[in-house]
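Lay summary

Proteins are chains of building blocks that fold into shapes. Our project writes down both the chain and a compact code for its shape. Here are two examples, one after the other.
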Amino acid sequence: MAARRPRVKKCPDCKGKGEITEAVRVGTRKGRATTDEQTALCTTCWGSGEATQ
């Protein structure tokens, strides 16, 4: 029988996806939020989706 892999906690920032979405802001000063979004690598877990501690 194969050994079970221990469960790891999900990253709280990206909820285990490894990516986060941010609203796109345009303009000077305050920056107006648009309806567009961009995805980026989660810097907390570096894209693994696992909590570090």
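And here is the second example, written the same way.
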Amino acid sequence: MGLIWLVAVAVLATLLLWWAFPILARIAGFWIFLDSLLAIVFIPHRAIPGRLWLLALGLFLWLAGHWAHAFKHGEWASPIALRIFTLPGLRWMIPRRTLIYFDDPDQ
């Protein structure tokens, strides 16, 4: 197991991550967010200090999956993610090829 083997494994892992990350991040982020939200709603006395960071992590992972999908495919997988990314703090993160100009009369 030399250097070539390590490089081949790294390239294979990178390709697998490029292929699977948008889907897996959106699914895992949704379930983490939903689980944390339900725990906060139904058992707030035990869940509030410990689940807030998981709630933020699930939202971040879900948004990262949507951003990766938009970057990779040039279109948004969800109109909700597009609305979130058009907020003033996140607008600069929108991939260039997914930008839609509504005041362009030629479209």
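What can we say about the second shape? The mean pLDDT is 86.
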